[in-house]
Sequence to fold (318 residues):
Amino acid sequence: MPMTSCAVIGAGYLGKFHAQKYAALPNAELRAVVDVDRQAAQSSASECGCPALADYRELLGEVDAVSIAVPTVHHFEVARDFLSRGTHVLLEKPMTSTLDEARELNRIAREQDVVFQIGHLERFNSAFLDLADVDLAPLFIECHRLAPFKPRATDVNVVLDLMIHDIDLILGIVGSPVKSLAASGTPVLSKGIDIANARLEFENGCVANVTSSRVSMKSERKMRMFQSDAYISIDFQNSGLAIHRIGDKEMFPGVPEILREESTFEKNDALKAEIAAFLESIQQGVPVVVSGEDGERALETAIRITDMVQANYPGSNQ
Fold:
């Protein structure tokens, strides 16, 4: 079995989970966990049976691949340094703080001919994966991604933290350029945008209405798609998928019957699947599931939405 030497840069909430997955995968050799917080690095490294480091630069040119899970403001610098040395990179979302930074990382990745994957985790949700065999041609999409407030997630606003998941999925499903968008939102408990709504109109006629909140009393991650022959509902949180189709019979005179298919999937380990796909791209040359270009495209739309919200609420500074 091919073996890839790996390291995790950032031992915070997400980074420690990345380290656990690499340590558990048979085709990965976890060489180090890195964090400027030595205690956090040591805690994660001890659990995974590898060394702890405080400076990621000690690993430049020393490992085949890295997961980068540092605060977003540091994404560009760390990813640039590894990509420039020919290291394969799995970079947590949002990809970077600015669109210029994202474009530069993609340029370097192409120049170095390395695997560059962005951590849009919902692509690996078991309910979403089951849609691979469904012919999707939505005319209207509605998304709700709601969560209670968590102080650890406020380094970026709710658009870049939560809504960007749905933006990535929608852009991939619709496959058409955004023609226009409208957005509104407001800070509530932080200095950045905590709740936002965006309406995206695509050149092919599809419309998407997306709401994200990190100040809700409940958690919800749902997407509903309406197309000429079906209504499709995805529950990302509970790994549920429901498809309603028009049947051949009549429910009432002149009204076609509606056939309902419901599936509930065993919750898969989406992060482990994401890292396994990253390693597969490195070892077998298969295309990445979420490319740097995908990450850049989602970031561009998220920044447009952020800018529009901020224009309406000048006090929002993220």
The radius of gyration is 21 Å. Residues 4-114 form a domain with the Rossmann fold fold (CATH 3.40.50.720).
